[in-house]
């Protein structure tokens, strides 16, 4: 006696693809943020090593502005990698963590994939937005550092 095989519907395939895509995007932002955090740390260490040097006032001002932009970028990057544990969405582990086993069992009777795609997509968009702002701050800092370097040479 053979067991009946069920083939996933197009909707099932689309949901699974969407979930995989959004989860991969979240992982990408976390990886990028980690790399940029290391870069920012190196930049801030380099700037700190110049703190005792006698530099022209415009160079010091531009360097301070650059340091502030790097610090802001670092804060944004830390927000990218900071876990979200609100979980009022009824389709994620933070929500399930507060439930009794019987309540979790009741939650599993419905298809939560659409809610998970929505929630994960919101998380991904928030992470990418912060990542983009952090990169903008870093580019601003690099421009300010270039101007400071020119000012130090002149």
From TrEMBL:
Signal peptide (UniProt feature, chain positions): none
- Residues annotated as transmembrane: 35-55, 61-82, 134-153
Q: Where is the Pycsar effector protein domain?
A: 16-150
InterPro entries, sorted = PycTM_dom
Keywords of the record: Antiviral defense, Cell membrane, Membrane, Nucleotide-binding, Transmembrane, Transmembrane helix
User: Which cell locations does it reside in?
Assistant: Cell membrane
Q: What is this protein called?
A: Integral membrane plasmid transfer protein
